[in-house]
Write a structure and sequence with these properties.
Blueprint: E1 5-7, H1 9-31, H2 43-48, H3 51-72, E2 77-79, H4 84-90, H5 93-96, H6 109-123, H7 125-130, H8 138-159, E3 160-163, E4 173-176, E5 197-200, E6 207-211
Antiparallel strand pairs: 1-2, 3-6, 4-5
Amino acid sequence: MAARPRLHPFALVLLFLLTGGMAAGNYLSFTQLPFGPCTLGPVADWSQSSCPLYVYYFVGAPLVVGFLLLILLPNFVLTRAEPTEEKAARVPEEARRPPSPPGPAKPSADTAVQLLGLFQREGRLVDFLREDLQAYDDAQVGAAVRSIHQACRQVLAEHITLEPVLAEREGEEITVQKDFDPSAIRLTGNVSGEPPFRGTVRHPGWRVTRVKLPAQPSGQDPKIVAPAEVEIP
């Protein structure tokens, strides 16, 4: 429904003042102004009497009042506010929909550095991965890997909770449906045509369900994986 215009209360006062002033002027012109008598008669007689003065007044006064109203009244016209229900009805459907819940926060680089620092602190994983193993025999490498594996496995179990992406084990048959998530299932081998596909599980995958990292100490550089160690004699 279209909005209906209405006059500002002051516009009514203005109309009353202008019409009242013109009425008072009419009264004074008949009773107080010394125009003299005006009678209807031949044009020659009428032009010599006081009638032209009355004509000037009674024609000019309404024109002046009308001109003032034409200038002033548009500034006092208000548009009536429409009901809230009508405004809501015009709001697009998309604007009335509740906002979508925010997705999970993306892990920052600082979180990855902190997790790597835990592996380094407990199992010296970074030192092991950066070590050149060509100078060691298999027995020496195997002995070192056992302790590193045990320590890093404990860190993983304490701070990261994992679950398989697929419930099927390695070697079992599975049907990949048409609506599968490419980020969760990677197809290998002879992939052609459209799903569903029938294949063999080569790895069930891993999905993180919980990350529990300790709070970083205040003022610590988040890019430090492991602090340098200096022994003072």
